[in-house]
């Protein structure tokens, strides 16, 4: 059996194992644990999208929360029943044809990604002529502009009241299905000639220009694709939590996704997925530090926001002592697994020969 056939068979087994685990979790876990599993999938999609922009193309973007907001609002408006829209928009009625539009969940999520990609393309053309910290500041400004606009467009977004009672279609199957689609697309993209160009731009943009590469075109396309999947993640998140408002999409949301990406490893698809598991579970576990605790005879009051303090310190420690993250730029693969197994066997055989 050649490596390609072996990988296809093993990938099929891994997918079957994932489906079996999700079915078991759906029937055995309580609502809280299922919610964490859903958040892991959504965060992984968002981390992969940011890693494409930052880790593989080298563009320091802080506008992910804005793209997520566009995806979340677009999807929510499309899947809400018309009667619910009439009841909810009390400041100003929702404009036509949005007031009567209704779409299947898959179409709504896809539309959320496309709207995010469209606005990313609009801002990419002027903004991506910047670089480094200036690009980060510009994209952060865009994210804040989107949040303010969402607050004031009462006839579309319901303003500061937000949207409540969003149908909770985003279950384990939808979230992990979209995660598999996102992973498959980005893996194929990164392993293609297009991905090699992105890595060349990341490593040395001037050298890439001298080789005749239209770096601006590739940067814009990478930014737009990353924003599309950020919009998809935002759409899934909105349906998962069933309530969205402009204050939900503040900079701290981008910071969380950036933390996942850096922890997993910039330039590593496997790292983004591993980082989403680690950080999502850690964030939930750290809620304990915000609750009152009694240790022996000492009573420790809960400190609101303390988990984000610990979270930020963890990011600082990662940057100081393991800047490359968990995976660095490496990827988990069947070749890596089998090569390690063969090296271990060879080592054991050499030890037996010496004895």
Rg, Å, rounded: 22 Å
Structural category: mainly alpha
Instruction: Summarize the helix and strand pattern as letters.
Output: HHHHHHHEHHHHEHHEEHH
Question: Which strand-content bin applies to the residues?
Answer: under 5%
Mean pLDDT: 86
- Contiguous low-pLDDT stretches (5 residues minimum) are none
Intertermini distance: 34 Å
Widest sheet: strand ordering: 1-2
The portion of residues assigned to helices is: over 70%
In short:
71% of the residues lie in helices and 3% in strands.
List the topology elements:
Elements: H1 3-28, H2 31-55, H3 64-79, H4 82-88, H5 105-127, H6 132-152, H7 154-157, E1 163-164, H8 172-190, H9 193-203, H10 205-210, H11 215-241, E2 243-244, H12 251-264, H13 269-285, E3 293-295, E4 298-300, H14 306-321, H15 334-354
Antiparallel strand pairs: 1-2, 3-4
Helix pairs in contact: 2-8, 2-11, 2-12, 2-13, 3-5, 3-6, 3-11, 5-11, 9-11, 12-13
Walk me through what this model shows.
The structure is a single chain. The chain is globular. It contains 15 helices and four strands. The chain has helices at residues 3-28, 31-55, 64-79, 82-88, 105-127, 132-152, 154-157, 172-190, 193-203, 205-210, 215-241, 251-264, 269-285, 306-321, 334-354; strands at residues 163-164, 243-244, 293-295, 298-300. By secondary structure, the chain is mainly α. Helix 2 (31-55) crosses helix 13, helix 3 (64-79) runs antiparallel to helix 5 (105-127) and helix 3 (64-79) packs parallel to helix 6 (132-152). It has a domain at 31-250. The strands form two sheets. The protein has a two-stranded antiparallel ribbon. The chain has a two-stranded antiparallel ribbon with strand order 3-4. The chain is 71% helix and 3% strand. The longest helix is centred in the middle third of the chain and has 27 residues, at 215-241. The chain starts with a helix and ends with a helix.
């Amino acid at each position: 059996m050649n490596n390609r056939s072996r990988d296809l068979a093993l990938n099929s087994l891994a997918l079957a194992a994932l489906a079996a685990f999700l079915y078991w979790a759906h029937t055995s876990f309580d609502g809280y644990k299922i919610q964490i599993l859903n958040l892991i999938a959504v965060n992984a999609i968002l981390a992969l999208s940011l890693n494409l922009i930052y880790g593989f193309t080298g563009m320091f973007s802080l506008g992910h929360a804005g793209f997520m907001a566009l995806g979340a609002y677009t999807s929510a408006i499309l899947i809400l029943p018309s009667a619910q829209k009439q009841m909810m928009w009390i400041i100003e009625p929702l404009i036509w044809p949005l007031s009567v539009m209704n779409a299947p969940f898959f179409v709504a999520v896809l539309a959320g990604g496309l709207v995010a990609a469209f606005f990313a393309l609009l801002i990419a053309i002027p903004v991506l002529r910047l670089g480094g910290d200036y690009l980060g500041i510009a994209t952060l400004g865009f994210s804040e502009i989107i949040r303010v606009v969402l607050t004031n467009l009462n006839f579309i977004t319901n303003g500061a009241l937000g949207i409540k009672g969003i149908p909770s279609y985003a279950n384990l199957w939808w979230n992990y299905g979209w995660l598999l689609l996102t992973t498959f697309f980005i893996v194929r993209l990164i392993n293609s000639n297009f991905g090699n160009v992105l890595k060349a731009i990341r490593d040395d943009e001037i050298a890439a220009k001298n080789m005749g590469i239209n770096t601006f075109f590739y940067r814009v396309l990478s930014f737009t694709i990353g924003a599309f999947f950020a919009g998809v993640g935002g759409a899934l998140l909105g349906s998962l939590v069933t309530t969205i408002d402009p204050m939900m999409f503040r900079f701290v949301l981008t910071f969380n996704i950036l933390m996942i990406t850096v922890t997993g490893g910039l330039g590593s698809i496997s790292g983004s997925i591993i980082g989403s598991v680690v950080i999502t579970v850690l964030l939930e576990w750290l809620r304990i530090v915000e609750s009152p605790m009694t240790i022996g005879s000492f009573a420790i009051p809960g400190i609101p926001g303390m988990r984000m303090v610990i979270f930020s310190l963890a990011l600082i420690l990662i940057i100081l002592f393991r800047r490359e993250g968990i995976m660095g730029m490496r990827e988990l693969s069947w070749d890596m697994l089998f090569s390690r197994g063969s090296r271990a066997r060879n080592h054991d055989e050499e030890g037996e020969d010496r004895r």
